[in-house]
Amino acid sequence: MRIPKLFRLCSIITLTVTAVGCESKADKEIYVDSMTPAAELAELDVTNCRNFNLGINDDGRSGNWSPPYDGAYFQAVLGPDKYASYWLTPIPVLNPQDFPGAHFEIRGQFPKSRYFSFHNNNDAGQVIDVRADTEVLGYQSANNPFVTDDEVSGGEYRLRIIDALPADQTNPAGDMIYGGARGDDDQLGEMNQLVYRIYDSAPDPKACTETDPSLDCRDLHQGLVGLPRIYYVYPAPDSPQDGPTLSDICGLFPDALGMDVEALEQAEAAADKAAPVVAADTNHRVPGYDPVEPNSWFVGKNFQQILNQGFPTFVDDEEMPEDVEGGFYMNTHSNYIAAYLTPMALKEGYAVVRLKRPAKEDVRYFSFMLHQTLNFCYLHDGRRDNDLQNDPSNSDYLTLVIGPLGKRPYSVPEENYMDYGSGSPVLLMRWLMPSDGFNHAPNKFEGKAEDYQGLEEHLGEYYPAISYCGRQQIDLGKCTPLAGYIQH
Question: What is the model's pTM?
Answer without folding.
Answer: 0.86
